[in-house]
Amino acid sequence: MRYILIGGAWPYANSSLHLGHIAALISGDVLARYHRQIGDKVLYVSGTDCHGTPITERAKKEKISPREISEKYHKEFSKVFENMEFSYDLYTKTDNEYHEEKVKEIFKRIYDNGYIYEKIDQDNYCEHCQKFVADRELKLICPNCGNETKGDQCDCGYVPTKEDLQNAVCIDCGNKTTTRPNKNLYVALSKLQPEIEKYVEKNESSWRKNSQNETRKYLKEGLKDRAVTRNLDWGVEIPIEGYEDKRMYVWIDAVLGYITTAMRYCEENGLNWENWWKENKENENRIYMVHGKDNIMFHTLILPGLLIGAKDNYLLPDKIVSTEYLNFNDQKFSKSKGIGMTILEALDKFNVDTLRFHLIKNGPETRDSNFTEEEYILTHNEVTNKLGNFVNRTLKYKGLTNIPNGNMNEEVKKYLEDKYVEISQSIENIEFKNAANKIMELLDYANKYYDESKPWVQIKENEEEFNNTIYTCSVIIANISNLIEAFMPETAQKIRNYLNIADKSWNYIEVEKGLKLENIQALFERMSNAGQ
Questions:
Q1: Which residue of 74, 342, 380, 509 lies most exposed, with the fewest beta carbons within 10 A?
Q2: What's the average model confidence in pLDDT over 154-169?
Q3: What is the rounded CA–CA span in Å between residue 505 and residue 38?
Q4: CB 54 within 8 A of CB 314
Q5: CB atoms within 10 A of CB 56
Q6: Which DSSP helix (H) or strand (E) runs through 356?
Q7: What is the 3-state secondary structure (H, E, C) of 156-209?
Q8: What does the mean pLDDT of the chain come to?
Q9: Whole-angstrom Cα distance, residue 36 to residue 506?
Q10: Span 495-516, pLDDT tens digits
Q11: pLDDT tens for each residue of 354-381
Q12: Are residues 406 and 468 in contact, defined by beta-carbon separation less than 8 angstroms?
């Protein structure tokens, strides 16, 4: 029995989700649907990241509390994922008591094991605002690219050092900051590096190249111990005496959320969460982490480091599914500059299944990619022509009321059986574009078979051959419903309804001969080019 854990990165509750976010996360849903189809025990989890400075900044701007701002975006995110047909077993949020208590337990265990320790820092302090200032509340000139950046991370990827931040100014008031002694807790990543290196060497061969390169870069430089406490009143409390006035860094409670969410889902559904997260010789396990390239180190270094430090027999993520960036009309997404499109805006204009398929087939799997409305419409119309029309001209053939009592073409059957194997291999190798292209190959094959068989001639000259052709095409359609389930689930379900298929599977299937065909509707409507 295989136990498959899939963790989708936790979006920050500080602005609406755009197409780039979904392009980074949709692989998780493909994996979840596929692994369920082949009979694996799947647990697919994620949630809204409600804590940290970005949320408090947004709350300040809107003059409401951080809890109100995070709840507003959590509801929006939940709607987005539901409308995009993401099949999370549990999509939760970090602002809930269960998560916070479990995270504190794991944090305390790491502390007791000696991997979290106290240190006195010289932290940035704003005399004007009378407070310690978080990295994200600072701005400075990036030493790497020369552009103005916030203190947590530049768009170029550079993370400012303590020394860099000595020249920073407070975003709120614009005054240059000073430094003051400040007591913090640190996670000893330098002490954990030997164990983390062993983990990376064992697993990185199945990671995307960007994950391998980014992780190796940090290991080569030597892992630096990182502060795990910060001066905030919004976030998970620190379960260590003397730190009542501080909160946990958001990247700790977010990555540990993959475990706490599994715990909660299993507790509520009578399952054992340890089947997914703990060593068990009877189980075969796989843990996928799905995210954009800006989150690589948190999933390949921070999360494994925390789990190793807990010394509690945790499994570590073995499949890192990290995308590059999606641009919009050849520009970076930017809400302030009006560049891009939110998911809810996209769903008002586009078909959800062809949007999913387009983002998988043309997304930033291994290199940055670009989204334009024109290119999406090309994909939509191609799917309409090759899938929608094939289904329509088979199941709505003039005068056809039932599936014919025909024979299946053995060559076509073998082709379909081979496609299950090929697409399965592509998905298991986290090559989703390749899987999508193989689906398009199947659609081309199906249409070629139909055209070369010429059922419009057969019905006049040889009814038996006509019945064989239409039956074979009906079987192709039935198997297409299985093979596209992970990519276009709504369309797959429509086809199953047309052909009275009880459930999806990952095996070659045939169609009930004589089945009455009724209420066959067009799967898609053709779209005009943008601007027409």
A1: 509
A2: 86
A3: 7
A4: no
A5: 21
A6: helix 352-361
A7: CCCCCCHHHHCCCEECCCCCECEEEEEEEEEECHHHHHHHHHHHHHHHHHHCCH
A8: 95
A9: 9
A10: 999 999 999 999 999 999 999 9
A11: 999 999 999 999 999 999 999 999 999 9
A12: yes
Q: Which two tokens stand for residue 152?
A: 């947590």
Read off the amino acid at residue 40: D
Q: Each residue of 14-69: pLDDT tens digit?
A: 899 999 999 999 999 999 999 999 999 999 999 999 998 788 888 888 889 999 99
Confidence of residue 530 (pLDDT cuts 50, 70, 90): low
Inter-CA distances, 428 with 28, 32, 72, 320, 377, Å:
12, 11, 36, 12, 29
In contact, 322 and 297? CB cutoff 8 Å = no
What is the distance between the alpha carbons of residues 449 and 472, in angstroms, rounded to a whole number? 9
Alpha carbon 116 to its chain centroid, in Å, reads: 30
End-to-end C-alpha distance for the chain, whole angstroms: 53
Burial environment of residue 197 by CB neighbours within 10 A (0 to 12, 13 to 18, 19 or more) = middle
Q: Over the stretch 455-500, which tens digit does the pLDDT of each residue have?
A: 999 999 999 999 999 999 999 999 999 999 999 999 999 999 999 9
- Sole residue written with tokens 């950046």: 149
| Cα–Cα distance for residue pair 427/424, rounded to 1 Å | 5
Residue 13 is given by DSSP the state: T
Q: Report CA-CA distances (Å) from 490 to 116, 496, 523.
A: 47, 10, 10
Distance CA 226, CA 65 (A): 28
**Integer Cα distance of 384 and 370 in angstroms:** 22
For tokens 């290991």, what's the residue?
219
pLDDT of residue 532: 44
Do residues 27 and 20 touch, judged by C-beta distance below 8 A?
no
Tokens for 48?
């809204």
Write down the residue that tokens 């087939």 correspond to: 361
* CA quadruple 132, 134, 138, 143: dihedral, nearest 10: 120
Q: At which residue do the structure tokens 């430090």 appear?
A: 309
- CB-based burial label for 510 (10 Å; 0-12, 13-18, 19+): middle
CA distance 234 to 189: 25
Q: Could you tell me the sign of the dihedral formed by the alpha carbons of 290, 508, 444, 383, in that order?
A: negative
What are the pLDDT digits (tens) for 56-98? 888 888 889 999 999 999 999 999 999 999 999 999 999 999 9
Q: Name the percent of the chain lying above pLDDT 90.
A: 86
Place of tokens 């936790």: 10
- In this prediction, residues 257-266 reach a mean pLDDT of 98
Asked whether the CA dihedral 322, 204, 44, 29 is positive or negative, the reply is positive
Return the CA Rg of the chain: 26
Tokens of 409: 């073409």
